[in-house]
Amino acid sequence: MDISVITPSCRIDSLEMVRKCLQKQTFPREDWEWIVVSPFVPFPPTPEAIEHQKSRARLQGYAMVAQVPFPIRWIPDPPKRKNDFYVLNQAYNCALRVANGELVISYQDGIWTDPDMLQHFWDLYQADKRSCVGAVGDQYEKLDEFGKPTIVFWADPRRTDKHGEYYEINPIDLEFTLCSVPRQAFYDVGGLEISFDMGAAVGEKELCLRMDKAGYKFYIDQGLSYRALHHHRLTEDWDKYYDISCKLLEEYRPLIQIGERLKLNYLKGGE
Length: 271
Prior knowledge:
The chain is α/β, with parallel strands linked by helices. The chain has one domain: Spore Coat Polysaccharide Biosynthesis Protein SpsA, Chain A, CATH 3.90.550.10. The chain is 33% helix and 22% strand. It has helices spanning 12-23, 47-53, 56-66, 88-98, 117-127, 183-189, 203-213, 238-257, and strands at residues 3-8, 32-38, 72-76, 103-107, 111-113, 131-140, 152-154, 166-168, 178-182, 217-229. Strands 1, 2, 3, 4, 5, 6, 7, 8, 9 and 10 form a ten-stranded mixed β-sheet that branches. α1 runs parallel beside α3 and α7 (203-213) packs parallel to α8. It is globular and about 45 Å long.
C-alpha cells in the first residue's frame, strides 16, 4: 500500500465533501486506502450514534459517505478520558496503528481539493522520503457542490510570492488540514502526544518539533491547494482550551530542544 489517507471527522456533512474529492483522485485506486476516525461509526449507525447526530439530514449524509465505490476503514472515536476536551490526537494514533500506507496524508473534513492531490504528494515523497509537505488553502463561508468558493473567511498567510512555489518552513507551520508525512516519521517519534486532547489544537505542532529533531524536513508546496469550508468552533470556550494547549507546548518545547521527550510510546503494536 502506497498511501493511507486519514480523516478524523466529527462533521458528517463535511466528510461527504472529502468522499467526493477522493472518488475523483487519479492515483491508482488499489494503491491507497481511506481511514475515517469518527463518532459516527460503526456503520450502520448504532442507536447511540443516531442520537449523537440528532438530525435526519446527518444520517442521510452518513449513508452517502458509506456508499463509496471503494473501501473505508471506519474507526470509532476513542473514549474521552477525564479532563479531555476532545480526542483528535488519540484519533490520529488509532488510525496510524492500522495504516498500511508508506505515506500518510492527513486530510481533514470540510476540504475540497484537486483530483491530482494524491499523485502530487506521492511524487514529492518519491523525490525526498524524509520530507513532510503541507498544502495551502483559504477558508470560505460557503462552497458549492463543485468546491467553488464564495466569500473568503480566512486567507492562508503561508501563500506567498517571496519563496517560490516550494519552500522550507518552520516545523510548527505544517498544518494537518491537508499534508503528507512519511508513516515512518510517526513511528520514529512514537505518535502524537495525547495530553494535548485536554486542550484544543497544537498537538501536531509538538509532534512536528519532535520529527524535526529526528531529521525530517518541512515544506510548503503552493502547487498543492485546497478550499476549506469555514466551520464554527466546537465550544464557546475554545480560546480557553487553546490556551491550555499552548502552555503545554511551551512546557514541552525546551525538553525537545535538549533531546528529551523525542520518542513516545503511543504507536506500540502498530508497526
